[in-house]
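The aim of this short unit is practical: by the end, you should be able to scan a pair of folded records and say something sensible about each. We start with the first protein, listed as its amino acid sequence and then its structure tokens.
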Amino acid sequence: MALWRFGRGWPEPVLKSYLKALAHSPVNFKVQPEAMTAENGWTIDGSQAHMGTERHGPPTDNGLFMRAKQAIINYDFSDPHVVVGHFDPRVPLQGRPMLLEIKVLGLHFLGAVRVQQTRDESNDHETVFGFRYDTLRGHIESGVEWFLLTKNHQTGEVSFRIEAHWRMGHFPNWWSRFGFKILGEHYRAYWRRRAAARLIRLAHQPVEKAVATPGHLAHRGDSTPQRTEPVADGA
């Protein structure tokens, strides 16, 4: 069942208990992502943004691509006025469960996702990094979403793409479902625009803070975008 509150979110001990319970939580859809097509009734949307350019060739250490890559891993790009990502930064990205706190007109909905697939590959022409998370049981949406960062080795251009395949999921009551039908696309489009703008800013600045206080969850994004330091896998 979808969790929701009005006016405030959830304290960290509660979020930790919810995250722990996600270990074996199933996805809330029954088809393979390849079958999530418009012909089968799925909504497909997303965005493409130019991040900037760096010197030709593979990504450089602490260059634009690598700074954006770490911001994606830490979910720093999310606008907290719409979505806050709660997760344990010590858990490796592949398979990482996350709680997404979705905010709409004072309402807070808590939905679970899992990073189901990652891409980290390079060839003579380009380098690609990103991940896909899948919605889990109880989420108000159903489907998958990709976040992909690409560098063209020939031009040096770095770009960021979001692609989602989704349907409406589980809502706690009829009026929240109706409200999502009216406002959902507006908030989704706004969040995508803000995510791209925030990631561009993050990719042009140094690390400013730790992703989380030791022993605590990460609660990403900040009101003012801040690029956070990495946490070693399994640390």
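Turning to the second protein, read its sequence before its tokens, just as you did above.
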Amino acid sequence: MLRVLPVLIGLALAVYALVDCIQTPEEEVRGIPKIFWIVLIVIGTFVGPIAWLIAGKERKLPGRRPRPRGPLGPDDDPDFLRGI
């Protein structure tokens, strides 16, 4: 069983990375074109999937959305200043 575990981990990692790569839009892929990432994931045993997960796609940090910038007070609001 212990001999099979690295093979199963590598297979699961490759399947996850391959599905993630296929579902990623082309404009979010970094480095090389998407088709080459797919080939690298399929051919590379551990290196391809790990490279995709680290450097292949733009990752967005959760909870880090840009805050909408709006007027802070009435003196910064152009509509309010027009009405004066």
